[in-house]
Amino acid sequence: MKLLIKNIQSRAFLNSWFVIAACIALIGIFFSRAMISIGMIGIVLLYILNQGWKINFFNRSGNLVLLFLAPLLFIYLIGGLWTEDYSYWFERVQVKIPLLFLPLGFFAIKDSIDRRSVDLVIVLFISVCTATSIGSFVYYLLHYKEITESYKHAKTIPTIIEHIRYSLLLSIACFAAAQAYSHSTILTTTLQKRLVAGMGVFMFVFLHILSIRSGLLALYATGFVWLLIKVLENGNKKLLWLIPGVCAFLIAAYFFVPSLHNKVDYMVRDVNRFVTGKSVNNYSDGNRLLSMKIGVEVALEQPVIGVGSGDVQMAMNEVYKNEYPDIDQHNWLIPHNQFVYVFTALGFFGLIIFIACLLYPVFNKVVMTDLLCVSVLVGAYTSFLSEATLELQQGIVLVTLLFSIAYIRIFSK
């Protein structure tokens, strides 16, 4: 029995288990929710396989960074005390369980994992993002006229998963490719490095053709934050001259990339309808803005503790029904902003805790000097402005799994 336990805890076994579980979860993001669950369970089991409870969690303050979003699970649990819709509350709590248990699996192997294992998972992630984006790009070329025209009506190039989260994955993958090109331990030849660099360049170009604002915002916000970090590190202010060059590139892209041009024009028209008080029924951006407006109004009725973590949907529906009869029921949304959602559910009490959680890793030097960690954090935080990212399984995995992989890579050997 002791020999069996020793074999299970062996470094090679733990690395193999990690690679398999992480790859299943990552592939599941694109192809199967069941695979996401299986992969996450596999990672959580690492805590048991390596007897994580025997490892001193507080021997390094950095261990807490892995759990930076876990308090969100606990405040959602507390929010059940003043909730009426316990069915919806249970769904909200259930989807956030990985915020606590997934990082514990990574914590248990943080000092046992090999750099090659983590780099292998990252290269797989880059490859899957590239392969799926090539598929969408080919489809776009085959239906160029129809798809370009559809961008005038809030449509996009078909993608393998919901386009907003997909664009965030591509943004992170671009920076993962840049880091892999420079520092990956499994890319040993010039050809391999050039291939990964080419993947990164392709995804960068495709993001502009796809023209999803969340992805582009994440891409350029990450670039801007990383540029500032490098300026502060090196004191080389000449790097700031890249900013006007990037602005010029974006202006040129607006005029020369038809899908981007049509997307921006549609957005301006859509937002203008909302601002001028016209009906935004069946208008994508207007509906999102209206959901945020209603969310804030609902939250201000209970500004301290909110309506309860299970009553957001019910409270929103009530406002839509009574005050916006022109909005079809299938357009009744939860607040399309994670900050507004938390404010609606848990008031200033929850919002302050949530913002504190987001700020915690920003003050960790190890995190903020790693390109992949920064890209995941900035990508997630920018997505919170237009999506309730953490209310969906894919969003939870996108943030927690990718950040944990990036973080343990720093400590791998």
Characterise this structure.
- Among the domains are: 1-55; 118-278, no CATH class.
- It is globular, with a radius of gyration of 22 Å.
- The two termini are 29 Å apart.
- The chain has helices spanning 2-8, 11-31, 33-49, 63-66, 70-78, 86-96, 98-109, 115-142, 144-150, 163-183, 190-210, 213-234, 242-256, 258-275, 284-301, 312-323, 338-359, 365-368, 371-383, 393-411.
- With 413 residues, the protein is an all-alpha fold.
- The model has no long low-confidence stretch (mean pLDDT 89).
- The chain contains 20 helices and no strands.
What is the structure about, briefly put?
Helix content is 73%, strand content 0%. It is mostly helical and 413 residues long. Among the domains are: 55 residues; 161 residues, no CATH class.
Measured between the Cα atoms of the first and last residue, the distance is 29 Å
Sequence stretches where pLDDT stays below 50 over 5 or more residues: none
**Residue-averaged pLDDT:** 89
Helix percentage: over 70%
Tell me the number of helical segments per DSSP (H or I, 4 or more residues long): 20
Q: Describe the largest sheet.
A: none
**Order of secondary-structure elements:** HHHHHHHHHHHHHHHHHHHH
**Shape field:** globular
Structural class: mainly alpha
What fraction strand? under 5%
What is Rg? 22 Å
Q: Give the tally of β-strands.
A: 0
SSE topology sketch:
Elements: H1 2-8, H2 11-31, H3 33-49, H4 63-66, H5 70-78, H6 86-96, H7 98-109, H8 115-142, H9 144-150, H10 163-183, H11 190-210, H12 213-234, H13 242-256, H14 258-275, H15 284-301, H16 312-323, H17 338-359, H18 365-368, H19 371-383, H20 393-411
